[in-house]
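2024-03-11 09:14:02 DEBUG pipeline.ingest accepted 1 chain
2024-03-11 09:14:02 DEBUG pipeline.ingest length=215
2024-03-11 09:14:03 DEBUG pipeline.predict start
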Amino acid sequence: MNRIARTERATMKRRAFSWVWRFAVLAIILGLLAAIVIRATLIDVFHIESNSMESTLNPGQSIAVDRRAYSDADPQRGDVIVFDGRGSFLPYAKASFADDLLGAFSLTGSSNKYVKRVIGVGGDTVECCSADGRLLVNGEPADEQYIFAGDAPSEQKFSVEVPIGRLWVMGDHRSTSKDSRALLGASGGGMISVERVTGKATEVIWPLDQRSVIR
């Protein structure tokens, strides 16, 4: 009788352990799926690896990217955005449907992603520079308090008209940033399509002691 009871208890323990194990695996899978859906539709995370946006964003930081920011409107001047550089910053790289699908769910790396500030939107004329060395947008000097200390608005002279549906972007650390200026002669002219924008960079979320709103 005792032997039968011990066998039943052992069987119950195995069943309980199996149930807990299955529940844990299911919870992990559901958690991963929830994270993928959130990153694909609501808030993504982007890791800063270059110094092109200093001192607004610094290497080693991670930022939150609002994917909903441009669901009803296009990016505006002054916005800090994350975008897919294929067709602009990577002028000869083409994305397939599969690439776009995986990218939408954040299942690919960030080698094609960039973070820059919007300087000109469709219909704007952006020029460098005025007599006092300031960037001009539609003939008006731009107020660029975010530029890295000691940098000029641009050492490179240019005058461009931004096509509708495109954006002229630059890094805040102008002397080190490879941005729209460097690709004027390339396919796409360094101006990115609004359709390639992942979202708006809204907040530094890591390290915790550096958390701040991105302006």
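2024-03-11 09:14:41 DEBUG pipeline.report Residues 1-41 form one domain.
2024-03-11 09:14:41 DEBUG pipeline.predict end
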